Amino acid sequence: MNRVLKSLLFAAALLPPSTTYADDYGLPGEWQQVTSNAGQCSSCKITIMRHGSVLTIAANNGWSAVVQTDAPGNALWAVGNGRWQKGKGGPYSGTLFDIAVVLKGEQLQMVMLTEIDNRRAGTIKAVFTRQSAEEPLIKM
Q1: Which of 82, 91, 116, 119 is deepest in the core (most CB within 10 A)?
Q2: What pLDDT is attached to residue 79?
């Protein structure tokens, strides 16, 4: 596993339980991107679905991932890998990546490490907030 992901996981393991974790929300749900070093995207959202200790992450901008959590119940972090769809994500189109997500307070922090031809192509860092129940996913 990549040294950066190991460091992120070690830091996540030291985090105290957050309010979000204590309120029994955990990682699954709808998340709205608020910042990213890959460019601002007010319409970018991810959906995290639980399947036991495995989660699937589906992004509306062309990538998906499967991650393993730190606990069978609600989790503070998860790591795994995924792929950008061909024709999506600009320079990341079709690339594989390693991903780590960490729940910190009411924010979901993500680090994605992409690879092209067995060499690191880039690091995407993004922060998400939970999609409010009052806000529809699709605004009319």
Answers
A1: 82
A2: 95
